[in-house]
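User: Could you check the structure of this?
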Amino acid sequence: MKFIYYPGCSQKASSVSYDKSFLAVAKALDVDVTELNDWNCCGTTVSVSMNEILSLTLSARNLALAEPSNLPVVATCPSCYGTLNKVNKHFKENSRFVEKINESLSKGNLHYNGKVEVFNILDFLVNKVGADKIKQKVVRPLTGISIAPYYGCQIVNPYAKGDDNTNPQNLEKIIEALGGISADFSHRTTCCGGSLMITKKPHALEMSSAILKSIDHAKAKIIVTPCGLCQINMDAAKNVSSHYLGKKVSMPVLTVTQLMGIALGIKNKDLGISDSMMKGVLKSETINQ
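Assistant: Sure, the predicted C-alpha cells are below.
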C-alpha cells in the first residue's frame, strides 16, 4: 500500500511529534508513505477570506505535484485536508474555478486535472489500512483505559468524507482496535478555538475549557485527537483549568498516531512522547521502553 504524505506547515513546526509518530506508525503498519516533494503551505482556512483563488491555487499546486504519481494523498492535519479536498470539490463542480486555478498554476509549469484522491488521517487509518489490521499489530493493548475521542471541528467539515459528519465513529473504531474504551462526552466535534488562541486567547481558552469539562465529567484518562492544533489548545486549557473550571484537570492529550504507537509497541521517543507524560495512566511495563 503506497501513499503520498502531505505534512503541511504545522507538522514541521508546532506539531513535529505528530509528523514523527505518523511516520513511525505507518512503518509499523507496513504502509509505504513518501513525503510530497517541494510541497507548499495549503493556505489553510484563513487565506480564503483574503483571496479565494489564491487559497485554492496554493492547495491545487500540491495536488498537481502529486498527480503524476497516480497515488492517493494522506493529510494528517485536518485543516490541510479540508483545503485540499475543497479544491477537488471545485474541480468537479465549478469549471470557472478550474480555469482560473490552472491559469495560475501554468506560471509554474503545472496543471491539475482533479484526479488525486485525498484522505484525512482517520479515513486513511480506518478505511484504507483497516481497523482489523491495526488490531492485529497491537502488542500493548490499552485494556480498561477510558479514552476521550475528541475529533475537533475541521475533520468533520462539509468537505470531509469517510465517516458520518454529524456522528463520526472512526476514532472510536481505532480506540476499540487498540483495546481501549471510548468515553462518551457531548463535545466530541466542538471547536477548540483554533487559531483564536493567538488572537483572542481568553475566548479560545473558554472554548477549550468547555470541552475539557465535558471530558472530565466522562471520567476519561486520555484525550486523543486527529488534530495537532486541538492537541495544543487542549494542553493549554489543562494548564489553566483551575481558573476556568474551578479545579485542576490533568490528563495526557495525544494525537491519534501517538496513541496508536503506544499500543503498537513503538518507543516513546519515536512518538514524541516523554516517559513521564503517561505515568499514572498506563502500566509501568508499557511506558518503560
